[in-house]
Structure formats: C-alpha cells, structure tokens
Amino acid sequence: MYKRGNETQEINQKYALQCFNEAKDALKNNELAKAQELLTKAINLVPTCIPFYDYRASTLEKLGQLDDALRDALSMIKLDKTAVKAYLRTGKVYRLLNQADKAIKIYNIGLSHVKIKDQYYKLLQKQSEELQNKFLKSDSSKTCDMMRFLPPELRDDVLKRLPFASLCKATAVSKTWRNYILSSEVLWRDINFERPLRNTNALDDQTIRVYAKRGGRRLRKLICGDSPKVTDKALLALREIPCDRLQCIILSDSNISDENIRAFVKTIGLNLNTIDFSKSDITNMTLSVILSRCRHLESLNLSFCNSLTTEAFNPAIVDNKASKLNDINLQCCDQVMGNVIDYFNILFPKLVRLDLAGISGLTTKSLDNMKNFVSLKFLRIRGDLPTEEYLTLDDAFETFARNCIHLCTFSLNECQSLTDSCIRKLVQSCSKLKELDIMSNNYLTDVTMQLIGNYCKQLRVLYIGKSPGITDAGVINVIKSDCGPLLEVIDLRRNSNITDETLKEMGSHCRSLREVNFTWCKNVTGSGVGALVRQCGSTLKHLVLQECYNVAPDAIEYARKILGKNGIVSYEFRGKF
C-alpha cells in the first residue's frame, strides 16, 4: 500500500510539473486563460508547491482578478512563512489594490521571518523602505481606484462607451486598468480604426494583427476604412487567430488580392453581415463565393471595383444564399451595366438601399423596374436615363414613386431630361423624403421648388445647384415652408440667379443649418453673408463661398470670426468659370 501511494504521488508530481511547464509556455504566448487553467490543475495535484501559487497569482494579476491573486499570495505565506517570494507577491498585490498600508505591514512581517542571508532579503527590505517613504510623503492618506469596486459588468458598460482610440489610451492609466482592459471579453468586440483622411497610411498589417489578437474569437466588428498599406498578411492574421465570429469588415482601398479575399470568406467569413471591400480587385468568382457562403449578409459595398461585371449577379450562375441582403453599393463599377436591376429583382427583392451612381446603361426601363423594391429607402443614380421601349421618364417616375413610397433619400444628378413633372410625381408619393439631390438639371424651374416646399415636410438635405432655372423666389419658397427650420444642408452652387435675398431669408428661417454652398453664385455679396452668419452662426459649420467675387475679404473675415474655431469658411477666387 505504501509503495502504491508513493507511485501515485510521483505520478501526480510528474503531471503537475508538466502542467506547470505548459503554463509557462502559455504565459510567453500571452494565453492567460489557458495558463490559469493549467496552474489550477497543477495546484490541485500538488497543493503544497509555492511556485505554482506564485505563477497563478501573477497570471491572475494580468487578468485583473486581484482578489483571487491576493488569496493565492496569502496561501504561499501559510505554506512557508520564510518564503521571501510569498511576501514580495503579497505586497505587490496589495499595492495594485491601492492598499499601501497593508503592503507595508506584510513587508515588515516578511523581514521578521525571512533569513537575512536569503538572496531576496535585500529586495524585500528595499520594497518596504521605498513604499514607507512614498506613503509618508503623500498628502492624502490613501488613493482609491473606484473602478476596482465596480462589478465586472458595470466596468465593461463604462469602458465600452469610450471611443476606440480612448480605450487604447486608457490602458496606460495603471497596470490594473491595463490588465483588466486587455483581458476583457467585451471591450475588444468592436475595433474601429476611424481616422482623418490625412492618416490613411497609418494603418498597416501589424497594427491590425495586434488589435485583432486582443479581440480573438470575440471580435465582431473590424472597421479600417481606406488602408493602402494593408496587404494579404492582415487577412491571413485574422484567419490564424482565428476571428471566426466576425460579423462586419470594412477594408477599402487596400492591397489585398482577390484570392485572399476569397480564402478569407471561405474560412472565417460565414457569419459576416456587413462587407466593404470597395476599391479592390475583387472578381466575379469571389463575389459568387460571398453570395453563396454569407447567409447572414445584409450590406455589401463593392464600389469602384472595376473587375466586377453584370454577370456576377446573374441568377442562372450564382448560387445565392444571401437572402437577407438589402444594401448594395456598386458606385462607379465600370463593367456593371443597367440591366443588373433585372437580376436584383430576382435575387434581392427586399432591397432597402441601392447605390448605382456612375454605372452605365441605366434607362427609363431601369427606373421602372425598381418598382418591385417596395421597401426601398435610399436610391442614388447619376446621368441621363434614355427612353427605352417607348417608356418616357415621366411614366417611369410615376410607376417608381407610386410603389416606393418609403423612399427617404433620392439622388439623380446630371440628368438633363429631368423635369418639374418628374419631381411632382416623386414628391407627391414619397412624402418621407429627407435628402434630395437633383443637381445639374437644366430643365428644373421654381415649380420644382414650390413642389418641394409643399410636399417634403421632413426634408433635411437639398442639393439643387447647377440648375439655371432656379431663382431666389423658388429657394425662398422652400425656406419659408414647413421644412425650412429643419434644413441642415443646402447646395446652390453655380447659380447666378441667387442673391443676398436668399441668404437673408435663410438666416431668418433655417435654424438648423449646418452647411451651405454658394460656389460661383456671383450675385452674393458681403451683406447677405453677414446676415446669414449673424443668425445661423451657432449652428453653421461650413460655408462655401468659392469664386464669389462680390464678397469682400472683410466679409469673409467677419464670417470666420462668427463661426469660430468649430466652423469653416471656404473662400478662393481664381476667376475661371
């Protein structure tokens, strides 16, 4: 029996040592949870080994679980009152808990029990003296980290409200904060590298790898924006981690190859509901993989992807499983033609947002075919819509507007055949319009403005520039209508009919105005500018007066003074129309 007991003890010790060595390797790889689990196994097998407790206490410190770390440190002292490392570890945890008085006390107890010849005795003595001096010099008796007293769910709730950049800075507040933030299972779910355009080169593969590793399998959202320095290595890192629960990826204008996008989608992209690979070399083959694999896909942005063709959406070729897709952006995809609408009617009848600005081959029939998108709220197209199958633009607008009554944003600029009659059919049916962009249309008159004022009660944004048939009277009609106080953005560029009268009325009625564009409005003068900024200066953030040569420099300075540091007045005169 005695021999069998010894054998069991030896086996336990051997297995405990194996767990201990694996835990040290896990700590080197920053796999804290794994290291904690292995050290717990080792302690359960050999509950009298001080190094096991020491390493587990160190791991718990890094995980921000200081109360558990303190429990292990005190257990070390109970096992051996002469173990200097036990007192050093306990004192350190007390210091992390901002309990300097208890740390001093434990150091002094250690000095009375540890042998002077011990190699760490002087270190213990130094820690005690330094802390006592610091404690005595402090004006306040004790500092207190309130975050420590909050339950974990409240700490997460507080910290997750920080912008991503601020969350990263918060790791430098203290070791406690750093350990807690880095080990949180909630805070690294959403990684957003939003930054000014001038810093697009700041994001690289290494940065994405480091932060994605913090999120690990918890990562849900990765927003990178335009990232020209990002390459295939970034997607490879996401696959190796793996971030297989990722739901949103926005990575545009990168140097990632079509093959790697395809491999990414096949391996860890099955849960994606938002994909933005705009300005990339993505091909029909990769799009086919996306549509056949991403069953939860709701938003797809492939704008400026010039390798895509219309056939990428051919129902006869594509095995479409993305039945929830309701937001598609194919802006300026050179090889995608207008007949793609026919394919969308079959594949994605529940479209809510559609951006086809800049694609070729759109006709009156294309607009008419959109009548099936009864849930459509956002539509952007550009250019003339030639007549097809004897269907006039008026008739196409009537059919489209009668069915798409939930439309909130409509953009059709540079369409020279657009008339007041078309706008009438649009605004009478789509009473929920909040944004309207009908710039660069020669045949629109003040009748259009009257219709907008009468029917668009919720309008916030209006782009009506480059329309020579619009005058002061038409603009003032809109300003004085029900939507006038709600208007936030107005663009009247390149319209010589606009005078100071419009600016004065804007100042009187547009109390929510944030941005106005009067580029090349040659009859606007400093008098109108002054009246506008005096009354709208508290809300106005951007006033564009490019090439307004009748606005004197002193009026520009006055406008900049009123708008202050938070507002911008754009003014330049080159003298070329």
TrEMBL record:
Subcellular localization: Chromosome
Domain of life of the organism encoding this protein: Eukaryota
PANTHER family, per database record: F-BOX PROTEIN YLR352W, PARTNER OF PAIRED, ISOFORM B-RELATED
One GO location term (cellular component): SCF ubiquitin ligase complex
Pfam families: DUF7885, F-box-like, LRR_6
Protein name: F-box domain-containing protein
InterPro entries linked to this entry: F-box-like_dom_sf, F-box_dom, FBXL15_LRR, Leu-rich_rpt, Leu-rich_rpt_Cys-con_subtyp, LRR_dom_sf, TPR-like_helical_dom_sf, TPR_rpt
One BP annotation, GO: chromatin organization
Matching Gene3D superfamilies: Ribonuclease Inhibitor, Tetratricopeptide repeat domain
Keyword check for Ribonucleoprotein: no
Family: Belongs to the Tonsoku family.
Keywords on record: Chromatin regulator, Chromosome, DNA damage, DNA repair
UniProt domain F-box: residue ranges: 144-191
